[in-house]
Amino acid sequence: MTTNKQMTRYLSILVFASLVCARADVLTLRDGTKVTGNWLGGDSKQIRFLVNDQIQKYPPSDVSEVNFGPEPAPPPGRTSIKLGQTINEVEAALGKPALLFDHLPGQKKIYIYPDPPVKITFQDGKVVDTL
Question: 85-106 in b/e burial notation, b at 16+ Cβ within 10 A?
Fold first, then answer.
């Protein structure tokens, strides 16, 4: 027979376990790639991250930041564009630009968005500057 004290303990463990499982961390690599999973730890040689029930290992030199907990949403009406993102990633976030300047075909492009006003410069298909 289970006592109230044991039942409370089991319930506390269950709640804690569900919170840990529901929490997701976001690891951002230097190339702009975001990996969602759970931080397992790290040292000077590697960072361990649990992704889809698989342990992934990353050299610390490849990681730009780790956010513990879910990634914060961008402010309403704004989408965060980061250096290194591809043209497809930017278009998926912001849609087609209002103006497009193709300075060196296949090498340098500038996208202009009117609302909110944003100028994005691509070099070799990746974001190199935003204004």
Answer: beeeebeeebeebeeeeeeeee
